[in-house]
């Protein structure tokens, strides 16, 4: 089941991209975060802009420099990201969830800084599940013909098993396309090179690309919206 690509490229289209990693606060100065810098989402935003799209970048704690010429919507937590994405997706031809969303958040937020004297030698933090932004957007489909793209960073080293995880995930999320990549302590994060496989809702491989995040962004957008 091939998704209908956005016709005639991205010129004049509205593209909403989330990038970075959410941070879930424990107290006013501490959070649970992840290793995402936002590099791939920023590269996608720059490439979509260069193709003539109106680009909205929903930016969760970016470490990569934000691109010029796109509208930035800053968010911190998964809850803020969900709210911003639902609002912006209403006008989007393409939605790309490149952000690393925390799957869980602390069940409680301490309004004052936590103190060791009150906590003792070992601490247990209770976490609760966050909403799934990608699945929510895909289920709501606020605009007919909208293309919804997810990402999946997997540590599974075997390419076939990684593909199987991606096929299960794209089906579970209801996305049109899923960009799969392998990550680890030494790969996948930051401004360096990357390698991805793009699959569609039916699990078919639509593109494989390796190289700079800019070149990979171009390969992804070629699948989303062929010129
Ligand atoms: N995602 C999301 N909201 C969440 C978690 C993930 O929108 N609460 C999105 C990510 O932005 C990404 C896609 O879902 O586009 C896949 O994220 P991933 O963490 O690989 O999938 P999960 O469903 O969280 O599964 P896992 O248990 O493997 O982490
Ligand atoms: Ca996850």
From TrEMBL:
The entry's function note states: Catalyzes two steps in the biosynthesis of coenzyme A. In the first step cysteine is conjugated to 4'-phosphopantothenate to form 4-phosphopantothenoylcysteine, in the latter compound is decarboxylated to form 4'-phosphopantotheine.
- Annotated segments matching region Phosphopantothenate--cysteine ligase: 15-227
State any GO BP term from the record: pantothenate catabolic process
- Coiled-coil residues: none
Q: What is this protein called?
A: Coenzyme A biosynthesis bifunctional protein CoaBC
Name the lineage.
Answer: Bacteria, Bacillati, Actinomycetota, Actinomycetes, Micrococcales
Q: Which family does it belong to?
A: In the N-terminal section; belongs to the HFCD (homo-oligomeric flavin containing Cys decarboxylase) superfamily. In the C-terminal section; belongs to the PPC synthetase family.
Q: Which gene encodes it?
A: coaBC
Could you say which residues bind CTP here? 103, 113, 131-134, 151, 169, 173
Q: Which residues form the DNA/pantothenate metabolism flavoprotein C-terminal domain?
A: 10-225
Q: Which organism is it from?
A: Amnibacterium setariae
Q: Which reaction does it catalyse?
A: N-[(R)-4-phosphopantothenoyl]-L-cysteine + H(+) = (R)-4'-phosphopantetheine + CO2; (R)-4'-phosphopantothenate + L-cysteine + CTP = N-[(R)-4-phosphopantothenoyl]-L-cysteine + CMP + diphosphate + H(+)
Pathway listed for it? Cofactor biosynthesis; coenzyme A biosynthesis; CoA from (R)-pantothenate: step 3/5; Cofactor biosynthesis; coenzyme A biosynthesis; CoA from (R)-pantothenate: step 2/5
Give UniProt keywords alphabetically: Decarboxylase, Flavoprotein, FMN, Ligase, Lyase, Magnesium, Metal-binding, Multifunctional enzyme
């Amino acid at each position: 089941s091939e998704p209908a690509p956005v016709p005639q490229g991205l010129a004049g289209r509205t593209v909403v991209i989330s990038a970075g990693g959410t941070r879930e606060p424990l107290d006013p100065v501490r959070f649970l975060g992840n290793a995402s810098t936002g590099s791939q989402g920023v590269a996608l935003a720059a490439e979509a802009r260069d193709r003539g799209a109106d680009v909205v970048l929903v930016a969760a704690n970016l470490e990569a420099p934000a691109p010029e010429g796109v509208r930035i919507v800053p968010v911190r937590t998964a809850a803020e990201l969900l709210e911003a994405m639902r609002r912006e997706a209403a006008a989007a031809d393409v939605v790309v969830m490149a952000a690393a969303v925390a799957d869980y958040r602390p069940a409680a937020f301490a309004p004052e800084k936590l103190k060791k004297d009150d906590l003792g030698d070992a601490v247990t933090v209770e976490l609760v599940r966050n909403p799934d932004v990608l699945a929510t957007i895909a289920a709501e489909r606020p605009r007919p013909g909208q293309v919804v793209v997810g990402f999946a960073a997997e540590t599974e080293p075997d390419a076939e098993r990684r593909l199987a995880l991606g096929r299960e995930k794209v089906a579970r999320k209801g996305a049109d396309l899923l960009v799969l990549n392998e990550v680890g302590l030494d790969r996948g994060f930051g401004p360096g090179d990357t390698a991805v496989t793009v699959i569609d809702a039916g699990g078919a491989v639509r593109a494989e690309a390796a190289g700079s995040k800019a070149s990979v962004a171009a390969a992804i957008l070629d699948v989303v919206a062929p010129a």
